[in-house]
Amino acid sequence: MRIGTGRATGHHGELLQGVFEGSDGRLHRGLMTLPMAREDSVATFWPRPDGTISTRPENRTKAARAAKLALTHLGLAQAGGDLTIENSIPVGHGYGSSTADVVAAIRAVADAAGTTLRSDTICRLASEAEGASDAIAYEDQTVLFAQREGRAIEHLGGELPPLIVIGIRALCAPIDTLALPRARYSTFEIEMFRALRGAARRAVLYQDPRLLGKLASCSALISQRHLPKPQFHEFVQLAEAHGACGVQVSHSGTLVGALFDATQRGLEAEILPFMDALQETGRRKITAFAVNAELDFLS
To answer: Please, which residues have CB within 8 angstroms of residue 265's CB and are 6 or more apart in sequence?
Structure first.
């Protein structure tokens, strides 16, 4: 083995989260991640022959577990190593910080072994290491992902439509994802998820940001019944007044984001006043990023 490195990005919560019918006819908890490439975790793995994993920082137990699972998957269960994590992703708000560490660690171990693992394999190992994970290992491919089973429910057939996202953190304390009780969805909500899944498939196929925005807004509104965000409705009204095509949330975090159609002309005249209006409400931590689009006027 050699020294290996791996990288994984964070995300800004989900565009859709609920329960969905699998190929076995049963309902599975699933989500569609909104990737955010501007923040990342980088892992470096120095192999050792003693079978133990140490990390720096020392508290990265999930990443250590993931590294060991990756070694075992590669037939190197007797190997160990030193794992260094450099992570710029804020913790506890739904940016996927720990999943980014775990995915980066798995990729670093694979690189040290001179191989590259499939996204399906990385997600399965990440979910086993964390207990619940998300779909960032699929990068620009849109997937409806069973976060507690570590597998795709459906590959939606391509990249997300071009979006610009303006996000904030709701005014509440950071959230421990694994400590949250699982949402109990009503029969009406479960039927809604069936329709929203179809809309997601169509939005990706036809690269339709506005349809994606509408379904994300429905999912965010359902999430309000299970994990309400303070001032959510005020944020929605402000976003709509400035031309947003939808809103999204981190369903197990504090993030709220306004979605804008990146193909719309004159978008700058909508987004910059929207950001000013957010600041006037006292928001100082405003996140702006693009998905499959350029964001020149904010750079």
So the answer is: none
12, containing H or E segment:
strand 4-21
Judge contact between 271 and 166, C-beta under 8 A. yes
Residues 6+ apart with CB under 8 A from 232: 170, 220, 224, 249, 256
Which residues have CB under 8 Å from 182's CB, separation 6+?
29
For 202-216, the pLDDT digits (tens) are 999 999 999 999 999
Rounded Cα distance, 8 and 240, in Å:
32
Cβ-proximal residues to 69 (8 Å cutoff; 6+ apart), any chain: 106, 125, 128, 129
CA–CA dist 8, 107 (Å, integer)? 9
Q: Report pTM.
A: 0.89
What would the pLDDT profile of 270-299 be if each residue is shown by its tens digit?
A: 999 999 999 888 776 889 999 998 877 666
Residues in the chain: 299
